[in-house]
Amino acid sequence: MNVKDMPLMEHIVELRKRLVIIAIFLSPLWWLVFFLAKPVIVYLQNTDEAATLTLNAFKLTDPLYVFMQFAFVIALVLTCPVILYQLWAFVSPGL
């Protein structure tokens, strides 16, 4: 069977496989960066540009939320090569 002639369900299974691979790379990296994020955030807070800014926490969970968002963005950037490869591996057989 030609790859272009795959039924819809096989395409969905292939997409699921690719998304699982991305999650396997992203999740541990997210937690690793989460525990290493404090020095980077402290460094960014101590720059000259940040000296005039005030940090406000409107909820009890806001500082944790900032750490989680920061860690997710950094992990996403570091996982970008895997994401792009998996995207290409999913799309290229159909081209």
Automatic annotation (TrEMBL):
Molecular functions (GO terms): proton motive force dependent protein transmembrane transporter activity
Q: Where are the transmembrane segments?
A: 20-44, 64-91
Q: Which UniProt keywords apply?
A: Membrane, Transmembrane, Transmembrane helix
Which PANTHER family does this UniProt record tie to the protein? Answer: SEC-INDEPENDENT PROTEIN TRANSLOCASE PROTEIN TATC, SEC-INDEPENDENT PROTEIN TRANSLOCASE PROTEIN TATC, CHLOROPLASTIC-RELATED
Spell out the protein name for this chain: Uncharacterized protein
According to its UniProt record, where is this protein mainly located?
Answer: membrane
The membrane topology noted for this protein in its Swiss-Prot or TrEMBL record is: Multi-pass membrane protein
Q: Name one GO biological process term.
A: protein transport by the Tat complex
Annotated InterPro entries: TatC
Q: Keyword Ribonucleoprotein, does the record have it? A: no
Q: Which Pfam families match?
A: TatC
Gene Ontology CC annotations of this record: TAT protein transport complex
What subcellular compartments does it reside in? Membrane
